[in-house]
Specification:
Length: 254
């Protein structure tokens, strides 16, 4: 039987992916995977790095000293080789770093620079993940935001799910980006009819984003949020309901 020390990068990343997907919390095994991965880091592809970062973030292993050491080494690979990474890799890494509150501005600079060269290849989910990661970590790059806005306008947001729409506009609000009124108008045209598809958290996040960026830029959006929230009020937990209430107050709605 093979021992972990014999595993190749693809096998290590798949093992980590399997643990995270099943929600198995096995710090000892993940730490062993991290140690072996550090030994092989030079041979890791972007997919291997992305899968491991995503897995660590998904099951929250970040407090283990060995994991922290792995992330430090992975950071060097991300900064040095981000230009080789594909959109999915960039999205998963940015999401993972943000999920762990891992402050690494240099990494986001490298990830966004790579993304700028291949924005047309991003699927909506990957674009939103990268935006969410940047917004969560407070990293703003105007060229990237305008580029993301261009991609969204190209399809008039039609390929975006309700969750994608909510996270997209939340990221814009978190970064204070409202320099593209046409994009915001198209967002409303697609988001308003899809409010029934969103979770209470998505509705609250959308209301918060609108209140921060300016209700006047989002015709009919708060009305659509309120109508859907009223219909499903029993589904809201206390934090989501409080966020919605505060957002409507800040927006001077009603």
């Amino acid at each position: 039987m093979m021992q972990i020390k014999d595993y190749a990068p693809s096998e290590l990343s798949m093992m980590a992916w399997s643990l995270a997907t099943r929600g198995d919390y096995d710090p000892e095994l993940m730490a062993y995977i991290a140690r072996r991965s550090m030994e092989l880091m030079r041979t890791f592809t972007g997919q291997h790095v992305a899968t491991l970062v995503w897995a660590i973030a998904t099951v929250s292993y970040k407090d283990d000293p060995c994991i922290d050491e792995f992330l430090g080494m992975a950071l060097g690979a991300i900064i040095g080789r981000a230009h080789e990474f594909q959109p999915l890799n960039l999205a998963l890494i940015s999401w993972g770093l943000a999920k762990m509150s891992y402050q690494a501005e240099a990494a986001f600079e490298a990830l966004v620079a790579s993304a700028m060269n291949q924005l047309d290849d991003f699927a909506p989910q990957n674009l939103v993940q990268l935006m969410w990661g940047c917004a969560t970590c407070g990293y703003r790059n105007d060229r990237f935001l305008h580029g993301a806005s261009r991609i969204a306008k190209r399809t008039r947001f039609r390929d975006f799910s309700s969750q994608h729409l909510s996270n997209f506009i939340w990221a814009c609000a978190r970064l204070g980006f409202k320099e593209d009124p046409e994009m915001l108008r198209l967002f409303c045209a697609e988001a308003n009819p899809k409010m029934h598809e969103g979770t209470p958290q998505h509705l609250s996040n959308t209301a918060w984003a609108v209140s921060q960026l300016g209700p006047e830029l989002f015709p009919g959006c708060l009305e659509a949020v309120v109508a859907e929230a009223a219909r499903r009020l029993g589904e809201f937990d206390s934090p989501s309901l409080m966020m919605l209430s505060d957002s409507l107050f800040d927006a001077k709605f009603g």
